[in-house]
Amino acid sequence: MTTKLIVGLGNPGAEYEQTRHNAGWWLLDQLARQYNINLSPESKFHGLTARTHINGDEVWLLQPMQYMNRSGAAIAALAHFYKITPEHIMVLHDELDIPVGAVKMKVGGSTGGHNGLKDTQAKLGTPQFWRMRIGIDHPRNSTTPLQPVADYVLKPPKQSERMEINKAIDKAEDAISDWLAGNFERAMRVLHAK
User: Does 67 show up as a binding residue in the annotation?
Assistant: First the structure.
């Protein structure tokens, strides 16, 4: 049996709940509904957690309750406590460099300036964890291109964009099922197909 960890990145608080930066939380919430499990507070892991079994493996879900730039502490705390290695960690997050409605998956690589990924990499001591990247597009491609990135990610998407993000989340949910089963190539092929 392998222990795996799926983490949704976001910011706590009602004012951030519907913002683009919380796309990772949206996907994690959907996974919790899919597996019919409830996340509950766990102070030693600085967030909401749930445990289930999928394909014979123990799987933890984690929603850090610290701000995005400090979310690595929660991930490292749970991973170290249960001896979960980075290659068995999947971090769900918003991605500026991917168009709205698209989703991509990779292991390792650059943080792309994403503060949640930066902190996770620093706390785990390695970039070699999986990432599910939910496209939110970049403000330079929007109708208000002079909008600072920080303002853009901390605002809700337009209704049409949210519908596209929801479709991407559905695709990501299917890919995570493949990832959990060890079908990495199939998961990436489905997500990255043109």
Answer: yes
The residue ranges of every structural domain in the chain are 3-192
Confirm or deny that 16 is annotated as ligand binding: yes
Neighbour count for residue 151 (Cβ, 10 Å): 10
Which pTM does this prediction carry? 0.94
Assigned token pair, 132: 């599910």
pLDDT per residue rounded down to tens, the chain (194 residues): 899 999 999 999 999 999 999 999 999 999 999 999 999 999 999 999 999 998 889 999 999 999 999 999 999 999 999 999 999 999 999 999 999 999 999 999 988 889 999 999 999 999 999 999 999 998 887 666 677 888 899 999 999 999 999 999 999 999 999 999 998 888 888 887 76
- Quote the CA–CA distance of 45 and 194 in Å, as a whole number: 39
Q: CATH topology for 3-192?
A: Rossmann fold (3.40.50)
Active site residues: 21
